Amino acid sequence: MCTNPEIKQEDPTNVGPEIKQQVTMVSDTEILKIARTHHVQAESYLVYNIMSSGEIECSNTLEDELDQALPSQAFIYRPIRQRVYSLLLEDCQDVASTCPAVKEWFVYPGNPLRHPDLVRPLQMTVPGGTPSLKILWLNQEPEMQVRRLDTLLACFNLSSSREELQAVESPFQALCCLLIYLFVQVDTLCLEDLHAFIAQALCLQGKSTSQLVNLQPDYINPRAVQLGSLLVRGLTTLVLVNSACGFPWKMSDFMPWNIFDGKLFHQKYLQSEKGYAVEVLLEQNRSRLTKFHNLKAVVCKACMKENRRITGRAHWGSHHAGRWGRQGSGYHRTGSGYSRSSQGQPWRDQGPGKKDRHRRYLREHLFLNPFCL
């Protein structure tokens, strides 16, 4: 931990009280002031909290604790957050084993949030070496955008997919980045899920607000709601990464209202699950068909580089259990549930009353758009 001297207000952007003898995770006062300025102006997300107090929180989520095939978003995106910690706490980049842990207050089934999870930074590999925050945040040379993007992709461990992602037009780069990451991490995601994600993003571009409001899915599928929530939490994670890397992508490209709508996704998911043709998912719009196949090809090709072949649900065996989590995350999927290294099994202590209440909640409320949280 580092103690900074007094940081005085020097311009109108540094609003709020002065910081005197603040205990922080970062010793570079210039970088900390920049982070605080972006924070006050709502130009970044969670970066200043991590650098100043060493804490991060996500206290709500939409998840079915009885669905053992889909892990919690808290665990899926943890490796990304760990790499961001390594980037932001650059004092510890070469000595990650001795770097103070970040306190994560992330909700997941079985976690009452009485104590934070202590999570250490995870080293990442950036082509050309990991740049410093001063380079990422202050260097305005045109070629720096390339290094910023390289750093962003390294946080997702997707450096090998750079070429494919660069060929994707905005705002679908962010969507493809998240889908590649999700499908590599969680092999219980299938081709029908991918079709639904891409189809809803393409169809959303032509929908008016009134059309979206009037959408009524035939019924509510808890898995569809959790998948939608997973994607939205991925978007917030991407906002964090983009902020930390000096904004290689425009923030507006991955705002939920540009690439995701909960009810529209639910409709596409139900159609895809029933085996509807892609043309039906795309509402018989031929101009969307080429884009659909291009985006699908980008995701599938990138996943194949990571030895992940996306198959349809019909190809699954009856015993398909699924695995998730890359090496270094500290969490792993087991055959009978989720276990957390040296910290018990947080998904197991569920009484029958809690299960019944949770199922009732799923039936009654899961038509809501998850990004409203």
From TrEMBL:
GO BP, one annotated term: fat cell differentiation
Polar residues bias: start-end ranges: 336-345
GO annotation, cellular component aspect: nucleus
Membrane spanning stretches: none
Segments for region (Disordered): 318-355
This protein's name: Family with sequence similarity 120 member B
Provenance organism: Cercocebus atys
